[in-house]
Write a structure and sequence with these properties.
The chain is an all-alpha fold and 784 residues long. Helices cover 68% and strands 1% of the residues.
């Protein structure tokens, strides 16, 4: 019989001693399930052996027999049919105080029993509690398990119990190892890990699943992973991965391997060399969402290494991964995104993802309410950016189909710098060249944000914005929208930025705006713009010079603007551009021709250094360049100070050749030039004679145009002042042609014809007189 129990804290009477199983205590309490007196020789909690002095006591909650030292407390036990406090052991007292749902001591007693059924029930009861109730990790409960020597007991059961019991115990261990509070006491049980690995290696299927789950919990900690490596557990786990098709076991195995791959060790290399990537990639086709998530997680970790990414690309993982990016399971979708992020960093894998249509679910993720995390958004944007690099058209289509451009525009102003940069980069690459995306950009206020980024002072943001604008501005409609949204002034300011790449994009953007006619005269002539344009002519930014010259050429037809450009010092800069590339020189010569047509600036152009470059452009293979240069030369030939430099530049030779043209306008400008140059420098006729230009002049005497006839006759008259030219003209039957023009009904033609004949006769007579004098002088010398 038991000694009387101590009084409870509440002062109630203690319960009288009870007998063995099936007896009733003094309070009439049922004692079914109690440990039997005659079968127990030592304390359930302390292991102390019972003697005549060390008496036995039943705990009224768990029913186990304990010594007095650990059963001095009393508590009310629910469900016992009595209301007073009764004797309980220290472990049960703490549990009753907390209100724990499961009696630990009772379940441990079952685990210690010889009944496999009782063991399985106890393991299941404790595992369910551990997996569902965080209170299981309470310090008092952990201490109770230690006091009851549960780690040793569980290890023993893993080694000796039946497969079903082993599976239940492994499941319990898996749940316990999920709490940090249990890892240390379980780690101290040295044989426990060996027992788990043995079960993984040779246990039944269910036992393997539970043991592998326990390993997954164990390897969640760094110390646990180290222990597994020391026990050569990786080889065992890898062997299971490569040889099982049981999905729950595959899932648990993936979790263990993913945990092991977290450390910077060579574990991933061993997996890669054994073909684990191919095995895990095959699991993505499973219908189990939890297996998909586990496989995706492991693959993402493995594919952080180039060698594994190559294997993943070879395994055709892109085809299986693409639908998972659109999974309705958030955890699966996030794991798929993590893998996609790794694969997109590898060109061949990114191409495969693009081919499999991965851009579409990625674009759709931007609009998903579940994509709220900055990390997730940044990952989606990064993947889309890399896919756009692999195939712009497919990425544009994907974004267009889901209507993601407005959302991208919102993300451009995101407080997270990575997100704003990725979004701006995508807008800059996906909208240009795609009408619908560009329209969404305009309608969603994207240009306003781009304009703000130009003024941000952040070079990276400015570069991305200008990159977008440089491509968008290539389309006339988009170019006008860019100007309307206030991007012009900022673009002009960036033309002189120290960053060369920024200057280049600004120049391309400005050039496209000019070429598209998006800049109105009022905008170009604005006091804030015009000085920028003139400065750009002499800028170190070569890409900016052409667009600036184009803009100036478009406004140089206005006299007031020509005056402003001159006052700002624009003529030397324009003259210097005449010797650059074809497009730039064309815009420059257009502007110079406008200035040359204005008498106010003809005197200035030779001083600006325009004569030589203009003469050079007369030989341009581009007709439009040649015509503009000829127009400028023709107008400059009216300036006496320009005649000498023009003749020295070889302009007369080229003009003489151009006179053979069938273009009436060209013929007119050539005749004007010849008249002025020959009139100012008759000796320059030699250059004309060398290319047969005098023949072209004679041809013009038969022109249907009276003006052409008049200018041709005048030019011939000027040539006649140079004696070598007279002989050439006489040999070319000039006199009959001129004589015919004396009958012209046009007074100007008659007048110039008379001038030409008179000059020709005068030079001929002078030549004859000189010959006569020479003969007389020779005769006199002979007579002497």
């Amino acid at each position: 019989a038991e000694a009387p129990a101590a009084r409870s804290r509440g002062g109630g009477a203690a319960e009288a001693a009870g007998g063995g199983g099936g007896k009733k205590g003094a309070a009439g309490k049922q004692t079914e399930g109690w440990a039997k007196d005659d079968e127990v020789t030592q304390c359930f909690l302390t292991g102390v052996k019972f003697t005549l002095v060390q008496r036995k006591h039943h705990c009224r909650y768990c029913g186990q027999i304990v010594c007095a030292d650990v059963s001095k407390k009393t508590a009310k036990v629910p469900g016992r049919g009595v209301s007073e406090a009764v004797r309980v052991c220290d472990v049960c007292y703490e549990q009753l105080e907390r209100g724990d749902p499961v009696c630990i001591a009772k379940q441990v007693a079952k685990l210690r029993s010889e009944s496999e059924t009782a063991r399985q029930q106890a393991a299941k009861e404790l595992a369910n509690w551990a997996s569902m109730d965080p209170q299981f990790a309470d310090k008092g409960i952990v201490h109770a398990f230690e006091a009851l020597r549960a780690p040793e007991l569980l290890t023993e059961l893993l080694q000796t119990a039946t497969p079903d019991t082993q599976a239940g115990v492994a499941k319990l261990l898996s749940a316990m190892l999920g709490y940090d509070e249990y890892r240390e006491p379980l780690h101290e049980e040295r044989e426990l890990l060996d027992a788990i690995l043995a079960l993984v290696r040779s246990g039944g299927t269910e036992s393997k699943v539970s043991a592998m789950s326990a390993l997954a919990s164990l390897t969640a900690s760094k110390s646990g992973r180290s222990e597994v490596r020391r026990a050569k557990g990786l080889v065992i786990v890898l062997d299971v991965l490569l040889n099982t098709s049981h999905e729950p076991l595959q899932e648990a195995t993936c979790l263990v391997l993913a945990n092991l791959c977290e450390d910077p060790t060579g574990d991933w290399k061993q997996l890669q060399q054994n073909g684990a990537v191919f095995s895990v990639a095959h699991m993505l086709g499973s219908a189990s969402a939890s297996l998909q998530e586990a496989a995706l997680t492991l693959l993402a970790m493995l594919c952080s290494h180039k060698e594994c990414r190559e294997q993943a690309a070879d395994s055709g993982v892109a085809t299986s991964l693409t639908p998972l990016l659109g999974s309705t399971k958030p955890d699966v979708q996030r794991a798929a995104l993590a893998l996609a992020q790794q694969l997109c960093a590898f060109g061949r894998a990114a191409d495969a993802l693009l081919e499999a249509g991965a851009a579409s679910p990625l674009a759709a993720m931007l609009l998903s309410p579940g994509t709220g995390s900055s990390e997730v958004v940044a990952a989606v944007l990064e993947c889309l950016s890399r896919l756009a690099d692999s195939g712009l058209t497919q990425a544009q289509r994907a974004v267009r189909n889901v209507g993601a451009v407005p959302h991208l525009i919102q993300l451009m102003s995101h407080q997270d710098g990575r997100i704003s940069r990725f979004a701006t980069s995508l807008v800059s690459s996906l909208c240009p060249g795609d009408v619908q995306n560009a329209e969404q950009l305009f309608e969603s206020g994207g240009l306003v944000l781009l304009s703000e980024q130009l003024d941000s002072g952040d070079e990276r943001a400015q570069l991305q914005a200008l990159s977008a604008l440089s491509q968008l501005s290539a389309e006339p409609v988009q170019a006008h929208a860019i100007v309307e949204n206030g991007c012009l002034t900022s673009t002009l300011q960036l033309l002189e930025h120290p960053n060369q790449e920024l200057r280049a994009y600004a120049a391309i953007t400005f050039g496209n705006l000019c070429s598209a006619g998006a800049l109105t005269p009022a905008q170009l002539q604005h006091p804030s713009v015009l000085p920028h344009l003139v400065a750009m002519l002499s800028s170190s930014n070569a890409l900016a010079k052409g667009p600036a010259a184009a803009a100036i050429a478009s406004m140089a037809n206005q006299p007031s603007l020509r005056q402003s450009l001159h006052e700002l010092g624009g003529l030397p800069g324009l003259a210097a551009l005449l010797e650059l590339d074809v497009e730039t020189s064309y815009h420059a010569v257009q502007a110079i021709a406008q200035f040359a047509a204005d008498e106010r600036f003809r005197q200035v152009l030779p001083e600006a250094g325009a004569i030589g470059p203009l003469a050079g452009l007369l030989s341009s293979p581009q007709p439009h360049v040649q015509h503009c240069a000829l127009s400028a030369v023709a107008n400059l030939s009216f300036v006496p100070s320009a005649v000498g430099p023009l003749c020295q530049s070889g302009a007369l030779t080229v003009v003489g050749q151009m006179l053979f043209s069938h273009d009436a306008a060209v013929q007119t400008m050539c005749l004007t030039t010849l008249c002025n140059l020959l009139g100012g420098n008759a000796a320059s006729a030699d250059a004309l004679l060398q290319v047969g230009g005098h023949v072209a002049l004679l041809t013009q005497l038969s022109s249907p145009s009276p003006d052409a006839q008049s200018q041709a006759a005048m030019s011939i008259g000027h040539m006649c002042r140079h004696r070598p030219a007279v002989q050439a003209l006489l040999q070319a039957e000039t006199v009959p042609l001129l004589s015919h023009l004396l009958h012209s009904p046009h007074p100007a033609v008659q007048l110039q014809t008379v001038y030409a004949l008179g000059a020709l006769a005068a030079e001929e007579e002078a030549a004859a007189e000189e010959a006569r004098w020479a003969e007389e002088e020779a005769a006199a010398e002979a007579a002497a």
